[in-house]
Amino acid sequence: MSGRFRRRSNLKKALAAEAIDDLHNVLNESNEQNLSDASARLILRIGKKYGARMKNYSGIAICRSCNVAMVPGRNSTVRIRSKSIKYTCGICGRTKTMGPSFRGY
Description:
Layout: H1 2-29, H2 33-50, E1 61-62, E2 69-70, E3 76-81, E4 84-89, E5 95-98
Helix pairs in contact: 1-2
């Protein structure tokens, strides 16, 4: 009986990962801030519920405190230092730092 539950859970996680990929494409291609923010909130909600994460990083971060898409130049700042990248949300001021082990591909 427990084997069936495990398979169903893996199926739900795979479907959640596919939904996150689709939402990530919408997030990258969208020029409207409202659509970007809605897809960012849905990405975070699906990730928390099913444990699925984005597979690769593409330049747009999501602020964890105000749940908006941090698009560089529009509502966030990006600072590149030696061996680290620092994102600052323009709405709430929260910073996100990616250290020396970060790979952008």
